[in-house]
Amino acid sequence: MRVHVLPSALVIAAALLLVAPAFAAPPGPPENVTAIDRPDDAGSTIELTWTPSTTSPADAQPVIQYVILRKTGENEFKEIQAIAATESMFNDTGCENGVEYLYSVIAVASDGTRSTPATTETPAIASTQYFDGKRGWFVVILLLITCAIVYFINLARRGHELKIRKITGLEAVNEAVGRATEMGRSCLFIPGILDINDIQTVAGITVLSRVAGLAAEYDATLEVPTSRSLVMTTARETVEAAYLAAGRPDAYREDNIYYLTDEQFGYVAGVTGTMVREKPAACFYMGAFFAESLILAETGNSIGAIQVAGTAMPSQLPFFVAACDYTLIGEEFFAASAYLSGEKHQLGSLKGQDVGKVIGALLLIAGCLLATFSLNSSKATFTRLDENRDGVISQKESSRMSKDEFTEIDQDKNNSLDAEEVSSFKSGTVAESLQSAADYIKDNVLGSNGF
Q1: Mean pLDDT, the chain, integer
Q2: 290-324 residue pLDDT tens
Q3: Are 106 and 117 in contact (CB under 8 A)?
């Protein structure tokens, strides 16, 4: 008996395998699969698009995801990504420029069955585009600002006086250095705690040149402690040039411009110690500052010094405004070079940048208005779609709806089958298939006598 049972079981299993494909028809393959180099980018990206199959069998399960495969040359296809069925586009960002790639897309159903691969007809090659056509508006704005700068520079060259708003903090530099000279005490200049590659440090060195020139003219002592060696070297050269321009090279003291330490609060401790011991009459804080700003400003305030600060760090401006006599805020600090020198090229550039700021402000206002009106319009659209889904559209409103909107509602209705009906339908289909398989095995495999 054992000899006959095992072969019979194998025969039954083989028959079931023959019948099983009837239960799981594969979905249809995606259509219109195309791969192109992504436009207006720096390369390394290929854009793959496709459309869902329109030839899927009626008994196929719904597609839940698409599997993307890629190959180069004579190599085999390798799976690189699986994405949701709701997507119809994939950006392959791991490509090499100049290499040909072929792609295949496979639809995967909820029961795990896969469609036949849909392969691109021609290979795609990623390449670099040097101009982004989507940002043509930026070129227009750049040309407007450039033309404004050139116009104001030429205007200044022809002798026209360009009016710049008075910056009180820079006007106070003369007062502060003069006060220190009258009191017979020194001036202290702190160019921030960042290195010379920071734009705020460069702006601070520009103001230092002005302060050094006044100190040389008034014969006042100028002390510049730094927290970076390159800043120390730059400050020494700047101060020396200012003393030479003032005709006082003999008054220049290199040792008054020195390096303390790169460590933030070690530098602050050294500077505040100098302030308490020597009690400078004028303190200038021009550069990038962080948590040490309030410590320095409060120490200078406690010794009665006149203080002028300038920084572009938004988080530190409130402390300088509260503790210092004058504060250069953001753009005022960067405009110090043009303001102090009065040089025509710099003044023209400054006025041209003001035109750019006006353009930016107008675009910002226009964008806010467009976003506001667009938000209201989108909100009304979503409200209308919700009403459509609930089936509460009046006949008058329905008459104004477009053909696409009616199509969308019909699709929603067709997809809203009762869950109980779907379950009953599936159960009946499976039962009929199993009965057919049993009849086939009985008639063609086992025979009328069974085992």
Answers
A1: 82
A2: 999 999 999 999 999 999 999 999 999 999 999 99
A3: yes
Q: Give the pLDDT of residue 56.
A: 76
CB-CB neighbours of 145 under 10 Å = 18
State how far the Cα of 445 lies from the Cα of 18, in Å rounded to an integer: 12
Q: Are 213 and 251 in contact (CB under 8 A)?
A: no
Q: Which CATH architecture has domain 168-334?
A: 3-Layer(aba) Sandwich (3.40)
390 has pLDDT over 70: no
Query: Tell me, what's the pLDDT at 376?
Result: 64
H or E stretch including 335? Answer: none
Looking only at the bridges linking them, the beta strands covering 63-71 and 100-109 are antiparallel
End-to-end Cα separation, the chain, in angstroms: 10
Phi-psi region of 133 (alpha: psi -120 to 50; beta: other; left: phi over 0): alpha
Provide the token pair at 118. 């849909």
Tokens of 80: 């690189």
Per 3-state DSSP, the chain is made up of helix, strand and coil in percentages (nearest 5) of 55, 15, 30
Dihedral, CA of residue 94, residue 97, residue 102 and residue 104, to nearest 10: 20
Dist CA 410 CA 397 (whole Å): 16
* pLDDT exceeds cutoff 80 at 437: no
The answer to whether domain 26-125 has CATH 3.40.640.10 is: no
**Residue 309 DSSP one-character state:** E
Q: What is the Cα–Cα distance from 372 to 279, expressed in whole angstroms?
A: 56
Q: How many Å apart are CA 236 and CA 316, to the nearest integer? A: 27
Rounded Cα distance between 132 and 42, Å, is 9
* Each residue's pLDDT tens digit, 365-383: 998 998 888 766 666 665 6
